[in-house]
Specification:
With 139 residues, this protein is mainly alpha-helical. The chain is built from seven helices and no strands. Helices cover 55% and strands 0% of the residues. α1 packs parallel to α3 and α5 runs antiparallel to α6. The longest helix is centred in the first third of the chain and has 15 residues. The protein starts with 5 loop residues before the first helix and ends in a 5-residue tail after the last helix.
């Protein structure tokens, strides 16, 4: 999805910064917000509303905290190539650091049960002995 004009694109970026203001520690200073708008204009290919929407939703739904412009760039770079060619990695944004991204990539290559174990999903504190359960032994 693309914005049809430069005016629509600038408006979409301004709206995105308004939405990002939901983040904990997001700057209230108008000059800082204008600088973030300029960053988004450099970072995202002009008119790419889908990329802008993904970034805003990800920051709000998964990150929740403003960790600065380099971290915003790092989150974006986990999914898209920055339009200005400046790559960054996240150092502090949970779920987006290089180690966490590598773990997630490796987990996607594993069988489902192993991936779930790696992420700590569905791991019981103790294993149930199926034969004992079938025999009527309830521990």
């Amino acid at each position: 999805m693309k914005a049809n004009s430069q005016h629509e694109w600038k408006s979409a970026i301004a709206d995105a910064v308004d939405e990002l203001s939901l983040l904990k520690f997001f700057p209230a200073d108008p000059a800082a917000r204008r600088a973030i708008m300029r960053l988004l204009s450099r970072l995202i290919e002009p008119g790419r509303l889908d990329q802008l929407t993904w970034l805003v939703q990800t920051m709000i739904d998964r990150v929740g905290t403003w960790n600065g412009p380099v971290e915003l760039r790092g989150v974006y770079a986990t999914r898209y190539k920055p339009a200005d060619g400046i790559e960054a990695s996240c150092a502090v944004t949970p779920g987006f650091t290089p180690d966490e991204m590598e773990t997630r990539a490796k987990a996607s290559e594993l069988p489902q049960a192993e991936a779930r174990r790696l992420h700590g999903i569905g791991v019981a504190a103790h294993q149930i002995d199926i034969k004992s359960l079938a025999a009527g032994d309830r521990q």
